[in-house]
Amino acid sequence: MAYFKVVLKGGHMGAGKSYDLVRYYSAQDMVSAFLNALSLSRVKKNPNGTSIYSIEQIPVDEFHRGKKEESRDPYLNYRPRQMRKACTYRR
Question: Are 8 and 43 in contact (CB under 8 A)?
């Protein structure tokens, strides 16, 4: 298993507006991480994968730090009241 840091173009801000979103993935290879990132919600759905700025392989300790940061990001963890569950990342 390999670990990746993916920088994406985040969406849901209106036409032509976006922000940089950093996500962390564990996948078999870089292509799998790329395809997983494209299928996420909150990512601009541009043709040909142009919503992904970069993918880099990272060590496991950086992956765990990144996942903890993701768990504290309110934008990534927002769920409507009806769908809220206790989901936190623990190592």
Answer: yes
**pLDDT in tens for each of the 91 residues of the chain?**
899 999 988 766 667 677 788 889 999 999 999 888 887 777 767 666 677 889 999 999 999 999 998 888 777 766 665 555 555 555 5
Q: Are 66 and 36 in contact (CB under 8 A)?
A: no
pTM for this one? Answer: 0.72
Q: Which residue spans within 16-78 are E strands per DSSP?
A: 19-27, 52-58
Indicate the burial class of 9 (C-beta count within 10 angstroms; 0-12, 13-18, 19 or more).
middle
Domain of 60 in residue numbering reads as 2-83
Give the domain CATH number at 18. Answer: 3.10.20
Domain count across the chain: 1
